[in-house]
Amino acid sequence: MSDNPLVSVIIPTRDRPELAARAIRSALAQTYANQEIVVVDDASAVPLVLPPELADDNRVQTVRLDTASGAGRARNAGVRASQGTLLAFLDDDDRWRPAKIERQVQVLSGDGDAAAVETGYELWDGSRLVERYVPRPDRNLGGELLERPRMQPSTVLIWRSAFVELGGFDPTLLRVQDWDLWVRFADSYQAVALPEVLVDRDASDADAGLLLFWYRDMVHRLEPRIAPLPPGERSRIRATHLLVESSLLARLGKPKAARHKAWLALREHPAGWWRPTLYMARTVIGERAWSTGKHAFQGVTNRTAAR
Are the CB atoms for 194 and 119 separated by under 8 Å? Predict the structure, then answer.
């Protein structure tokens, strides 16, 4: 690895020019200078036009797709248009803190066995902190990925050679394409967990029905990997997936179906009884009361973690 490798920053966007400009500015503000930024306009209804100071920056180029293809295909197009030996993906509604790329290059250069490095992030709903995630250096990435998505695109720096060998993001997936990629990544490669929060993400307002469809699709893809696991681990992972379905069904206004999924989770993994019980209570008290209580709990938790 050279001391100053070129990092290609890939930013997919559609119909969100203000957010795209914000993301680009966070990339340009990096303390690591050797970057190129490829912004992929995924067939926005009105073609993306960047503010003059961004459009005139020679580190920034724009690629426009004629047909809306989804974030995975857009990222792949950005990679093809780029030159860097390292790739960094930045969703248009996320921002990097200034030292993000510099810290990742430092860590990756010091670990000859790793093909990628992931940082932590904070998830925000406006000014309210929803979640703080910090990856554990001692984690089992392959095992974690069977249970929940990790390595959010905006948190990862990866060698181009590894990305290309994996075939990039699956263009047939309109959602979960990043989760799918990292599962395949973990089969052959190692990623360093950098336990620092260096990314700010915006909470998604995506349609719960769409999320449920693609979540079920991903769980179906993961099942051949889950089935051979030891019984306790297998049951815990399956229960987690059932509870995610329960949560999405509750958001869709289907309390009976949500309660049934929570009950199945309890049967699947009785040792974790408290979570299914909580989810069943959610279907009784209603989404408004649940949301209010959840926000209050998160506020206390986040204030405690910040001390």
Answer: yes
Contact between 78 and 38 (Cβ < 8 Å): yes
Q: Which domain holds residue 254?
A: 208-306
Boundary (domain end) residue, out of 202, 234, 265: 202
The number of beta carbons lying within 10 Å of the beta carbon of residue 298 is: 16
Phi, psi (degrees; rounded to nearest 5) at 4:
-140, 60
* Residues belonging to the chain: 307
pLDDT, tens digit (0-9, with 9 covering 90-100), for 139-194: 999 999 999 999 999 999 999 999 999 999 999 998 999 999 999 999 999 999 99
Distance CA(211)–CA(28), nearest Å, equals 32
pTM, 2 dp: 0.92
The answer to whether 196 and 119 have CB atoms below 8 angstroms apart is yes
Q: Are residues 216 and 188 in the same domain?
A: no
CA separation for the pair 224, 160 (Å, rounded): 28
